[in-house]
Amino acid sequence: VKVLGSLTIPHYREQPAAEWGAVYSNFLRKLGHGHLAATVLLPRQEVVVRQVQLPGVADRDLEAALRFQIDSLHPFGDDEAAYGWARVGKTVTLLVGIARKRIVDEHVALFSEAGIKIHAFTFSAASIYSAVRVLSSPPADGFLAFEEENGEVETYGESPARPVFSALLDQSLERAKALAL
Fold first, then answer.
1. What pLDDT is stored for residue 181 in this prediction?
2. Residue-level pLDDT at 65
3. Helix %, strand %, coil % of the chain (to 5)
4. Helix, strand or coil for residue 70?
5. Is the dihedral of CA 83, 41, 121, 114 positive or negative?
């Protein structure tokens, strides 16, 4: 893994899209990768994370089996949902991220206005699951990670009992730790 650079655009929603889009495009060009499309990490509060176990379902039938039950996995009522999923390792568990389609469409429009091509959308639990496996394997007995921001604590963990744990809690850091454990 070689990090070529990093860029943070704070409060991008409060700025004209063309401005921060130009900053992002210039950043990519300076790195010699102006042709790349972005993978957008949806805000954690906009994504419902579920784990679905589908034992006995053939790989070719997983999408259809998940689509059949997707409406029962989110609290959005009649709002149309957009979702993505991936198998958790070699288990029968699928990690599913579900967002309101309206939210995804808003991000598509915003990034389009900024002149940024989008390759994919993802969510924090999927990103963290993959990231901890880039250079090594995570601890076999599990781990928990926390980030506190604006009075909320995002928690992510893995253990032998739960292959993935992801929650956004409006608790103190100490209370969030206790609940996650």
1. 87
2. 96
3. 35, 30, 35
4. helix
5. positive
Contacts of 31 (CB under 8 A, 6+ apart): 4, 5
Instruction: Read off the pLDDT of residues 38-96 as tens digits, 9 standing for 90 and up.
Output: 999 999 999 999 999 999 999 999 999 999 999 999 999 999 999 999 999 888 999 99
| 176 contacts 156 by C-beta, under 8 angstroms | no
Q: In the chain, count H helices and then E strands.
A: 5, 8
Give the C-alpha separation, 87 to 52, whole Å: 9
Is there a contact between 166 and 153 (Cβ–Cβ < 8 Å)?
A: no
The amino acid present at 139, given as its one-letter code, is P
CA distances from 165 to 2, 111, 117, 142 (A): 28, 30, 31, 11
Q: What type of residue is 173?
A: L
DSSP string, 99-164: EEHHHHHHHHHHHHHTT--EEEEE-HHHHHHHHTTSSSPPPTT-EEEEEEETTEEEEEEE-SS-S-
Residue 97, classified by CB atoms within 10 Å of its CB into exposed (0-12), middle (13-18) or buried (19+), is buried
pLDDT tens digits along 38-51? 999 999 999 999 99
In contact, 16 and 97? CB cutoff 8 Å: no
How many whole angstroms separate alpha carbon 33 and alpha carbon 44? 28
